[in-house]
From TrEMBL:
This is NAD/NADP octopine/nopaline dehydrogenase family protein. Residues 5-113 form the Glycerol-3-phosphate dehydrogenase NAD-dependent N-terminal domain. Residues 193-361 form the Opine dehydrogenase domain. It comes from Pseudomonas granadensis. Keywords: Oxidoreductase. It comes from the Bacteria.
């Protein structure tokens, strides 16, 4: 079998886990681009990296290269996987762009591929016809408790992995990508027809923002108050948050239906959030009767803490962290994109807009957002129409 050279960008939880899994396979070379000196140091000391599996067993790996130097991480890569959060992807793509091979196809993708990664990669890697842009709908496994350069815990895995390519990619490139990802992840990889199937799948952007709004927004019981202790995202989800989530889910589905109809593309794979969660977690949810009960009784969601930091000025207690990923990634790159897509199709999404406006005010405004790369003419160009 040909040697497959994989470069993983981002030495966080997702980056560590995927790197270790790939190194279990024959003829796969893995390099890791990271700015974390601890990961680089552990590699230099020849410390093996371990994935701690849910059944108590573990997998061990030694990566081929671990570096903060973009050139040495990606210069000979066949496959590049961006695993940094959506608000950091542009900076990562800009760092690697000059060093990608120009003499062979290079498959550049994001895991997860939400927030319009296809548009970002197209804008950041112009005039690179050998680059094939792709994204995976979700992470293949959850990953948590990172001990940098040493170990990562693997959570539940997805039975199916859905991958989409930028609309510009040829059938031959799509088939080749499918073959590469099947080699890495097994026969569970399915190619989607349109990248919008990823972009419009509801997830963290509406989940996190609605719960925060329900907690500390203008009608929330914790509005302008300090939490005595850290709260769990889902088991302590407020009724108001679940109400807004359900409304935002409906609006997101309505947007998807209109885009599907007006662009003449099949987006039937995009399910409501409620359906996605029930199908993904099945028996782990004790009560599927409402959004609130689904969130509160899903065992897989137990004990996941909301992003909180100690209150300022030595006051006892906690506040929701303004600099958390729930804002910088989910609001600025997820919600902003949904609202802009709705605006271009003249569709009303009042609940999503209400939560977006409040969230942006809480963040003291947007520094950067998905609007920095969302194509200005979309949906009016052939390249952006899928
Ligand atoms: N972990 C999961 O189970 C899970 C589940 C669902 C979705 N996701 C999604 O997967 C993506 C990666 O998540 P993760 O859990 O792997 O993240 P993570 O453990 O926090 O790692 C993210 C990596 O991105 C890089 N980075 C650079 N600037 C950053 C910044 N300002 N803020 C945060 N990270 C920065 C860092 O890499 P270096 O220091 O190595 O340069 C960091 O290690 C996110 O989009 C997340 O929403 C993760």
């Amino acid at each position: 079998m040909n040697l497959l050279k994989v470069a993983i960008c981002g030495g966080g939880r997702t980056g560590h886990l995927n790197a270790i899994l790939f190194k279990q396979l024959a003829d796969v070379q893995v390099s890791l681009l990271t700015h974390n000196p601890e990961v680089i140091e552990q590699h230099a000391r020849q410390t093996p990296m371990q994935a701690l599996l849910p059944d108590g067993s573990s997998l061990s790996a030694r990566l081929d290269r671990v570096t903060a130097d973009a050139r040495s991480a990606v210069e000979d890569a066949d496959l590049v996987i961006i695993t940094v959060p959506a608000h950091v992807r542009q900076q990562t793509l800009q760092a690697i762009a000059p060093h990608l091979s120009a003499s062979k196809p290079v498959y550049v993708g994001a895991i997860p591929g939400f927030c319009g990664f296809d548009w970002l990669a197209e804008a950041t890697l112009p005039e690179r016809p050998n680059v094939v842009i792709w994204g995976m709908k979700d992470v293949p496994h959850t990953a948590f408790e990172l001990n940098p350069g040493r170990s990562i815990k693997m959570g539940g895995g997805k039975s199916q992995l859905y991958v989409a390519t930028h609309a510009r990619e040829s059938q031959a490139s799509r088939h080749q990508l499918h073959a590469i990802l099947t080699r890495l992840y097994g026969p569970c990889v399915t190619l989607l027809e349109h990248y919008l199937e990823i972009t419009l799948t509801p997830g963290n952007p509406i989940m996190h923002s609605s719960v925060i709004y329900g907690l500390i927004g203008p009608y929330g019981q914790w509005h302008r108050k300090i939490f005595p202790q850290r709260m769990c995202w889902w088991t302590e989800c407020p009724e108001l948050g679940a109400y807004f989530l359900e409304r935002m889910d409906e609006e997101s589905q309505a947007l998807c239906a209109v885009i599907s109809q007006r662009l003449g593309i099949d987006l039937s794979s995009v399910k409501s959030l409620k359906q996605e969660i029930v199908e993904a977690y099945g028996e782990q949810i004790r009560d599927t009767s409402s959004m609130l009960s689904i969130l509160r009784t899903n065992q897989a969601y137990n004990d996941i803490l909301a992003p909180m930091v100690p209150a300022a000025d030595n006051r006892a207690g906690y506040v929701i962290e303004r600099e958390s990923r729930a804002f910088n990634e989910d609001v600025a790159y997820g919600l902003v994109l949904l609202v802009e897509m709705a605006r271009r199709f003249e569709i009303k999404v009042p609940h999503i807009e209400e939560v977006l406006q409040w969230s942006v005010a809480y963040m003291h405004g947007l520094r950067d957002s998905a609007l920095d790369y969302f194509p200005r003419q979309w949906p009016h160009t052939a390249s952006a129409a899928a």
